[in-house]
């Protein structure tokens, strides 16, 4: 499915996804990225495929991105995953991400009951067949306890 020329490409086949919400993550006046949530049906649910497409405005090292993701997964999970699981997830994320520069796009496609497929600048980069990881990863943005509450609200269709 084509998500738009400016937003990268997530090719995952049917069902087609439609834009659900969009927003930016800005911290202390610096915008890090623009994000769009694409859903397969009206409303958001972890029961249906969706895609989170992020276009970076700033350079972010891959290692920092992964460390931040794992820190947030630890914070949001109750109980936190064991360290051996987090290290396995770290290794799985390494090929999924890059050291970003402004304009780079990373898209994650949530596959219910299966896991997540990642795309970098329109090319498949990794698939992680672990539904627990997939849910924990997307909760970074979509959990009610996310640190990015205003971005979550916009992604889920709020203003």
Automatic annotation (TrEMBL):
Q: Which residues form the Chalcone isomerase domain?
A: 51-157
Top-level taxon of origin: Bacteria
Query: What Pfam families does its record include?
Result: Chalcone_3
Name of the featured protein: Chalcone isomerase domain-containing protein
Source organism of this protein record: Cupriavidus malaysiensis
